[in-house]
Amino acid sequence: MTPALAFMSRLDDTDLAAIARRWSECNFRHNELIIAHGDSDRDVFFLLEGRARVTMFSEDGREIAYRDIAPGEIFGELAGIDGKARSASVVALEPTRVARLTGAAFRDIVINHPTFAWVLLEHLSAQLRRMTDRVFEFSTLVVRKRLILELLRRAEENGSVNGQVSISPAPTHSELAARISTHREAVSREMSALARRGLIDRRGRRLILHDLALLERLAAKKQ
């Protein structure tokens, strides 16, 4: 399956010029907060360089990671649409440059640029489908299957060669735990089991997935 194109890469030159004329750029350091959960501002952001993560924390301090944001992606659009408080935080995973569009400018572009509005609808549909899949996984699947599905999603983003995928940088066990709603210890146990079967292998900063077909069968197998 071909990975989805970044939001900005699907816009035409007219739309790109329209948003670039009205945005302002800013930089964030590693681990710096870009958006805070509960904030009331309505600005919409586009990630230009670096990486960021949409996340929340439970009352006991456990991180729940919703998605990672890559260059060319839009974020903060929900508050720009409905005017409500921020539903999650966004933190920079490395030195990051973003473009910031005021809520008023965002709404004006949506109204006056139908191609932009359609790409936005496609983006929101993809996010909703992804969230639906994750709710199903959290509600019905054991940790092992949730972990394998998350690894397969990351493999899809990187592309395979002869049935193998190299994921770089390799996600930490804490990162994976945050993505599949479990604890680091559970991820460590399942990753060790996959490694013993020869299905994954960590090499420095890379995580190698050796047999995507078998991983897919394990994810689909009745538990």
TrEMBL record:
Q: Name one GO cellular component term.
A: cytosol
What residue stretches are annotated with the Cyclic nucleotide-binding domain? 7-110
Which keywords has UniProt assigned to this entry? DNA-binding, Transcription, Transcription regulation
Entries under InterPro entries matching the protein: cNMP-bd_dom (IPR000595), cNMP-bd_dom_sf (IPR018490), Env_Response_Regulators (IPR050397), HTH_CRP (IPR012318), RmlC-like_jellyroll (IPR014710), WH-like_DNA-bd_sf (IPR036388), WH_DNA-bd_sf (IPR036390)
Q: Name one GO molecular function term.
A: DNA binding
Q: Which residues form the HTH crp-type domain?
A: 141-213
Task: Give the PROSITE patterns listed for this entry.
Answer: CNMP_BINDING_3, HTH_CRP_2
**Residues forming coiled coils:** none
The record's annotation in PANTHER family points to:
CRP FAMILY TRANSCRIPTIONAL REGULATORY PROTEIN (PTHR24567), HTH-TYPE TRANSCRIPTIONAL REGULATOR ARCR (PTHR24567:SF74)
- Designated name of the protein: Crp/Fnr family transcriptional regulator
